[in-house]
Amino acid sequence: MIHPYEIISKSALPAFRAMVSKRLTDNYDLTQQQVANRLGVTQASVSNYARKARGMMLNLEVDPNLSKAADRVAEVLSSESPDQREALRLMTEVCDYIRYNHVMCKLHGDLEPGFKTEGCYACVGGLSLESTTMKLKGSF
Question: Is the pLDDT of residue 79 over 50?
Fold first, then answer.
């Protein structure tokens, strides 16, 4: 049995970090080392995101809310003195959104073929209805 938080930590979070990493390098001209420092990962991880060797099990770009969230996190982390607590809060909100909105269900079914994801409610536990939408600060 694969726990939803395992899928978050091994697939969804790297996919989201890859999105933010791309935005920081493409839109804000940060180096891979600068991106790594701001995301709290290694430069090798950022290189793997860029080469699409990591963070590609889920395509989160198809969800406009997640795309906007990646834009916002990149914006927060792009400043000279990035607000890492705000970035962490936003990324935690993204993980809750991914879990609550069943973004990982297909991947879960692919990773664990015997597990019936249809009708599963494991990802809903413990979250309020407000978690179906993200409360990102700022305008888009």
Answer: yes
